[in-house]
Amino acid sequence: MGAVLNGQDVLSWISRHANPLTAVEPDASLGDLRPLRPMVRDAAVVGLGESTHGAHEQFTLKHRVVRFLVERMGFRTVALEEDWTKGLHIDAYLRTGTGDPRTLLADAGTPWRTAEIAELIRWMRSHNAAHPADPLRFIGVDVIKVRRSAYDAVADHITRVAPDLLDELDRHYDVIKPPADIDAYVRWLVREPDRQPFLDHARQADDLVRTLPVADGHDLALHHSRAIVGFYEYYLRGEVAVRDRYMAENVIWWREHVGGRSVFWAANVHTADGRPLEISYPPFPPAVHHTAGAFLRDHLGSGYRAIGGTFHRGSVNAGFAPP
User: What is the pLDDT of residue 4?
Assistant: First the structure.
């Protein structure tokens, strides 16, 4: 058994190895981030974690790290712990400039309805306006709020390639397709005593999509369908492990179909290489599972690197219930 370090030993180790930061604001000079270069030199995906979603300084520092990875290391995608469908809406804004970040984030997940994330998106759009041949991209990797646009995209694809199957798809989607207000739908769904039929319909629709002939848009339609299954699987099981598995799969899918180096922006409990990791979130029982970071390390090996984030003291804006 190895020696147990006391607090002073830990502080001494930190003082010998630390590289102090001079600023946390996104537009500050990037010089003090140079020590990151050898740490992430050959990484295809860098997990960028945070210990809380509600701290200004962690978000602004992460924005600054994203700047470094984009401007100095050639990273081109931000993969956020946000829903797959909302991510596509944000990506469309980055590509076209149509819309407004604050409006886009109005129905995003609670952690991302912030001025700091809006500023990140504005910065990404300004980069694209200046570098149209080398754009930044955005993906939502979660399945917690899969919106109507995923169902519509699958239906549009079937209409193009196999219109005779549209009625069969509708028999499933008519039961499970959410209304426009996804937040209200989730609140209703979690009160339903029997959610298994919803997942059954999602899986049967997914099986149908998998029978389609391979044509333009096939892979994307399959991925929309897979996200719908993930949404209902999560709300049936209620386990963080479901979200982590889908997050990793979404990052991998994007890498295989879009390419480029990605920043996986999420909480530490998702980005860490946890094998397994126990999450304690009272009043719920502790959850023990492999994290998205563990799945990504399994798939990419040393091509996945995780950077954790934390702070010493201060207040946070939680925005959640329970707090």
Answer: 76
